[in-house]
Amino acid sequence: MSHIVTIQTEVRDPEAVAAACRRLGLPEPVRGTAELFSGEAAGLLVRLPGWRYPAVVDAAAGRILYDNYGGAWGERAQLDRFMQRYAVEKARIEARKRGHAVVEHALADGSIRLTIEVGGAS
């Protein structure tokens, strides 16, 4: 029996943040404080391609702080790609912890379909 699941993502897992960065070919995230245009933000700093300021993951709050000035300082699509990859990596981590197999399929529209097989580690 298959199920379709919709996920609202909170960014709380530093391991999944790092895995998402690796999969996207981004620099490894570092813990620190970033000076954004509107002030400072502390957390895991994620450097997105073409962005003037890093995106800052506040894992305690489950959110990402960023300043891209409505797209002038970085394309929102880069943040969306990171969020998509974070959600995939987090789902993979949790499924594997439970001994399930995970198969990933990239779809033509840019979305990703994960198939999680209960009981078969992969």
Largest sheet: 4 strands, antiparallel
Please, what is the average pLDDT?
A: 92
Order of helices and strands: HEEEEHEE
What is the gyration radius calculated from CA atoms? 16 Å
* Spatial separation of the terminal alpha carbons: 20 Å
Treating each run of at least 4 consecutive H or I residues as one helix, how many helices? 2
**Beta-strand percentage?**
25-35%
The level of helicity is 25-40%
Strand order of the largest sheet: 1-2-3-4
Question: Which overall shape is indicated by the principal axes computed on the Cα atoms?
Answer: globular
Structural class: alpha+beta
Number of strands: 6
Please give the oligomerization state of what you see.
single chain
Low-confidence regions: none
Topology:
Elements: H1 14-24, E1 30-36, E2 39-46, E3 55-58, E4 63-65, H2 76-97, E5 101-106, E6 112-117
Antiparallel strand pairs: 1-2, 2-3, 3-4, 5-6
How would you portray this structure in words?
With 122 residues, this protein is α+β, with helices and mostly antiparallel strands. It has a domain at 14-97. 27% of the residues lie in helices and 28% in strands. The chain has helices at 14-24, 76-97; strands at 30-36, 39-46, 55-58, 63-65, 101-106, 112-117. The strands form 2 sheets. Strands 1-2-3-4 form a 4-stranded antiparallel beta sheet. Strand 2 and strand 3 form a beta hairpin. Helix 1 (14-24) crosses helix 2. The longest helix is centred in the last third of the chain and has 22 residues, at 76-97. The radius of gyration is 16 Å and the shape is globular. The chain starts with 13 loop residues before the first helix and ends in a 5-residue tail after the last strand. The mean pLDDT is 92.
